[in-house]
Amino acid sequence: MVLEDLVNPFVAEKKPWELFIFGFVYTAVGVFAALWIFKEQASMVMVFFTVIAALPLFYHTMRLEEKKDLVLLRERDILKEHAKALRFLTAFFLGSVLAFTFAYVLLPSDRVDGVFRAQEETISSVNQKVTGNTYSLTVLSKIFLNNIKVMVFSLLFSFLYGTGALFIMVWNASVIGAAAGNFFRTHLAEYASSVGLAKVGSYFSVISLTILRYSIHGIPEILGYWIAGLAGGILSVSVIRKDYRLHEFERVLLDVSDLIVLAAMVLFVAAVLEVYVTPLIVS
């Protein structure tokens, strides 16, 4: 009861970017504990350890956001309040991604393959599905439909398990961290062999390329998943508290519907950025 009690949604709303640090610390501890205790199953155990540490924060956030639905009258005001939660949850996710990326880059090559085995299999599977003309509408539709599938999982997992979307988000953080770490290592090796280790600027160039490649479409994509997870969590808390008996439950349903539509719109923008913008900036 140490890591999970370090922060609560009230503090997080006031200082959202502090959650970046908490996301990094929770994940770093999860990776270390998984390597120490469950070395052979580290690729999944490190995700579970990170989720366990963040569960209280996510659960209390869902309860707080559901309470706002019952108290506030205007949907615009409700969405503004939800934006506070989405800010610190996104900051937490980015911290988690950075920790997974550091782990991928810093661990020895022979250890990385074992620690990120499940993540690398997922990346390979996604790359095989999205083939052909990078700029085609077919690829756009595939990516968008895949985003919608993950959004539905986030929604259902949050509704059925309360904080189920948190597992999906941390898992995605580990996959993105593995992809970013692999991209960094590959391009760093290319620069080192071509210009030598004396060119410090080349390393900063690789870091910039890595950030650009996975943030242009990654941030709105993750935001869409968080919005869907928030919708499912609010509905789950409302059912558990039996607020469906109240007249105000109509506002909860309206808010959940708006969040789902908003999540789908954000994910479509993310898909467009991934297909038409990201390839133009980094290769």
Brief digest:
The chain is mainly α. The protein contains eleven helices and no strands.
Layout of SSEs?
Elements: H1 9-14, H2 18-37, H3 42-71, H4 75-106, H5 109-115, H6 117-129, H7 137-161, H8 164-195, H9 200-215, H10 218-240, H11 249-281
Whole-number count of domains: 1
Q: H/E series, N to C?
A: HHHHHHHHHHH
Shape: globular
Strand residue percentage = under 5%
Radius of gyration: 20 Å
Quantity of strands, as a count:
0
Q: How many separate helices?
A: 11
Low-confidence stretches: none
Tell me the span between the first and last alpha carbons: 44 Å
Descriptive labels:
84% helix, 283 residues, mainly alpha
Could you describe the 3D structure shown?
With 283 residues, the protein is mostly helical. The chain has one domain. 84% of the residues lie in helices and 0% in strands. It contains eleven helices and no strands. It has helices at 9-14, 18-37, 42-71, 75-106, 109-115, 117-129, 137-161, 164-195, 200-215, 218-240, 249-281.
